Amino acid sequence: MDRADLPGAAHLVLADGVVHLDPERAVFDAMLAGWERQQRTRLLKKAIIRPRLALIRRTGEFTNSYPWQWEPTDGEEFITHLRGERDGTRPISVSTARGYQLSITLFMQYVTDTGCQGPTVCRQRFGSVPQQVFHEGNSIAHVADVEGATRSAAVDL
After folding, report:
1. pTM for the whole thing?
2. What is the model's pLDDT at position 85?
3. N or C: which end of the chain has fewer CB within 10 A?
4. How far apart, in whole angstroms, are the C-alpha atoms of residue 6 and residue 145?
C-alpha cells in the first residue's frame, strides 16, 4: 500500500473534479472524516473518537478559522478561555486542559502528515498549510501524578 493510501488520506476523502459551494468547510469536514477513519483503523472506541472530533469542531468555532489557519496563539487562547470563568460554567481542570491539548496535537499531527496529503491539499486550495499548534513552550507540563485537589486541601482550616 502506498503511503498516500493510508486510511483517511485526503485524496481518498475528497472527490476529484467536485466543486464545493464552501470549499473550506468541505476540506475541514474531509480532515475530520479522515482522522475519524484513521482512529477507527487503530481500533479506538467511539467513546474516545467522538469527543475528540467535537473538540476539534469546537476549536474551529472558537477561532472562527480552519486548521490550516491555526497558529499557536489560537490554541493558547482557546485553552485560556476554557480555563477562565465563562457564562457561569466552571473552568476546565488542568488535566482536562492537558487532554485537550493532546487531542488537538494528535489532530494536527494527522493533518500535517504529508503521507495523508493534508499539507498538499491545503497549499493547493488555500495557499497555506496546517502547523502544529502546541509545542513544548506552550503545553501544560505533566509534573504531578495527582493534580486534583485533595480532600485535606479542600478543607478550610
Report:
1. 0.81
2. 72
3. C
4. 36
